[in-house]
Design a protein that fits this description.
mainly alpha
């Protein structure tokens, strides 16, 4: 993870990341405004905390991703040479990861609203420990003033958001301004760390790389450290967990509503969305590594976009929101995206067929997804419980797509170019002395 963070820090300029995340924050504010005043079907974009007893919040998931990205950068700094003791950076990274988990799951909100646990017990200790760890990291940035000031501004904004946290005052819902302030704080923390890592990395290795070399280095950093056996065990464990809890929660959910496989904005839906986003990232890396031409990359990029869109749709329940609003079957709005994805899958499959077992995994992923949709169309209406195997097959299909692309990419980046052999030196034939007569 650290090597990947370093590679990405070299490629992305902080101001571009700031503009992109600023646009995301403004978009969430606008969508929440529309939800409150006109379109209640946009509930997935409502700026509120996650709550395991109710539902996951899409803005909270995005916030957690920003914080986790900052944590990865802090770990990367800990691995750099000449950055002083790694302890403060590791502490800052750990704090960022813990806060990201708390935001994604809404743990302190859940404790407060469901069990009436005081903010001073459920959240203040985490805020204090995280703040202390982040201040230690900020002090270590003293030689990089711009990065230090940006990171410090993020700490201050996060502290202010914590003071205004609705659970501190017993409010049932978070004010929009507090959620936006948390997003802005996380963005400043990320941009500050990105600025610091980028400056240190470029100072240590200022030599420019070609685009192909940079893509290959990024791909190697992304997939090289992955332990396939551990990954398979983890995916299988999540599938079994969701199957058990989904069966218990069906129908209705009750206190386990966030594990109901028939609901949106739940843990299983978020997990499925993350699997699709990961498959999209792997498709993008495959395209970048396999070809230097836009034509050769075209369908890999289309496949990446389709996976990314389906992942966001799974997390934010986009087509369900449209379906509720216009009373038209939500899948119809996904049809153009799915058709583009099927064609891109077919084009890329022709390349993966000669790369076992990636081609087989890619086929199995499509089969699992097709079976899932067949259950949805043919059985859900008459036997409601079939939603459980439907969602599990969809989850398995997404995982198989990602595994296929991961295996293929690992094989690609492991192929080192053959060293060029020096041409043999051509020696002039030796001239024999003329015979003495």
């Amino acid at each position: 993870m650290s090597n990947l963070a370093l590679q990405l820090a070299r490629r992305f300029k902080p101001r571009h990341v700031l503009i992109a995340l600023g646009t995301v924050i403004v978009s969430f504010a606008a969508l929440d405004f529309l939800f409150d005043r006109a379109l209640d079907s946009l509930v997935a974009f409502h700026l509120d905390d996650s709550n395991p007893a109710v539902q996951n919040s899409f803005p909270a998931i995005v916030l957690a991703m920003i914080l986790a990205s900052a944590g990865a950068l802090a770990l990367a700094v800990a691995g750099l040479r000449d950055t002083g003791a790694p302890g403060p950076w590791r502490a800052a990274a750990l704090a960022l990861f813990i806060v990201a988990v708390d935001e994604a799951l809404g743990l302190h909100t859940w404790l407060n609203r469901q069990f009436d646990v005081s903010w001073y017990v459920a959240h203040l200790p985490l805020v204090a420990l995280a703040g202390a760890a982040w201040v230690g990291a900020a002090r270590a940035m003293s030689a990089h003033r711009r990065a230090q000031m940006t990171f410090a501004a993020g700490i201050g904004a996060w502290a202010l958001a914590a003071v205004l946290d609705p659970t501190r005052t017993g409010r049932a819902e978070a004010p929009v301004a507090v959620e936006l302030l948390e997003m802005a704080a996380a963005t400043l923390l990320l941009v500050g760390l990105l600025t610091f890592v980028r400056e240190r990395s470029l100072a240590a290795s200022p030599a420019a790389e070609t685009a192909g070399e940079s893509n290959l280095a990024t791909a190697r950093a992304a997939v090289g450290p992955i332990d396939l056996r551990a990954l398979l065990i983890g995916l299988a464990s999540f599938a079994v967990l969701f199957a058990i809890l989904g069966t218990i929660a069906y129908p209705g959910g009750g206190d386990l509503r966030v594990f109901d496989l028939n609901k949106e904005q739940t843990f299983p839906a978020t997990f499925s969305g993350v699997l699709l986003l990961a498959a999209g990232a792997l498709a993008l890396l495959n395209g970048l590594v396999r070809s230097d031409s836009p034509t050769g990359r075209r369908w890999w990029f289309v496949l990446a976009l389709v996976f990314a869109f389906l992942g966001l749709d799974e997390i934010a329940a986009l087509h369900e929101a449209i379906q509720d609003r216009v009373n038209v079957w939500g899948q119809a709005f996904l049809a153009p995206v799915v058709l583009a994805g099927v064609y891109a899958w077919w084009v890329t499959l022709r390349q993966l067929r000669s790369e076992p077992p990636a081609g087989l995994l890619f086929l199995l992923g499509a089969g699992a997804w097709a079976l899932s949709q067949a259950i949805d169309v043919g059985f859900n209406e008459h036997w409601g419980w079939t939603v459980i195997p439907e969602e599990l097959f969809e989850m398995a299909g997404s995982a198989l797509f990602g595994l296929a692309l991961l295996v293929a990419l690992r094989r690609l980046v492991a192929q080192e170019p053959a060293p060029e052999r020096a041409a043999p030196v051509q020696r002039a034939p030796e001239r024999l002395p003329a015979p003495v007569r």
